[in-house]
Amino acid sequence: MSGPVTARAAGFVACTRCTRVWPGGTAQCGRCGKPLVSRDTHSLSRVWAWWVAGLMCYIPANLYPMLRTRMLFTTSEDTIVGGAVELALHGAPFVALIILIASVAIPIGKFGAIAWLAVSVRRGSRTTPHSRHRLYEIVEYIGRWSMIDVFVVAILTALVQLNLAASIKPGPAALAFALSVIFTMLSAQAFDPRLIWDRAEDDTDAGARA
Predict the structure, then answer these.
(1) Helix (H, G, I), strand (E, B) or coil at 73
(2) What is this structure's pTM?
(3) Low-confidence ranges of the chain (pLDDT < 70)
(4) Taking Cα atoms as reference points, which of 147, 148, 162, 154 lies closest to residue 67?
(5) Is the dihedral of CA 10, 11, 17, 19 positive or negative?
(6) Is the dihedral of CA 2, 40, 132, 33 positive or negative?
(7) Cβ(136)–Cβ(127) below 8 Å
């Protein structure tokens, strides 16, 4: 049984920006101007570099307060999880659930998915290339929605400013969380999904020789 036919095996090279396919050896995409390379040889190095940077920012983003709320003479600070718990206790469980999914579940899932994709390219996987490529597209798509917690902080900061009566200001975790989202997005974008199919070719050749 033959393995998947890649563009490189067929003598073509695809633009990773606009997906236009060109004959092999073409130096630059004639549609969008992006330089064409058959494979990004430094892709995994950049993936892991951005991945580690995102993880380093995500840890303080959950340990330090996301919001600083002042009501008259009292001041309270809430982390991401603590703020979600407060929302649930004050009658907004749906909003709390959205924040937990967008700020906890999705980022952790992205870290795990990107790491698994990078490792599977190196060591192989029993999961089909189609499934892994679909997972990569999902990670790419949902990455932008991980910033919802920062948007909530920005909106509350702009709306709740009642001088001496009450005010809401972003805590140090807001910047750390925003950086974590940006770094994980860069990590996903640095991944060259064509490497998934190269690994599938290698596994197929190894199985044929066996």
Answers:
(1) coil
(2) 0.76
(3) 1-6, 72, 144-168, 199-210
(4) 154
(5) negative
(6) negative
(7) no
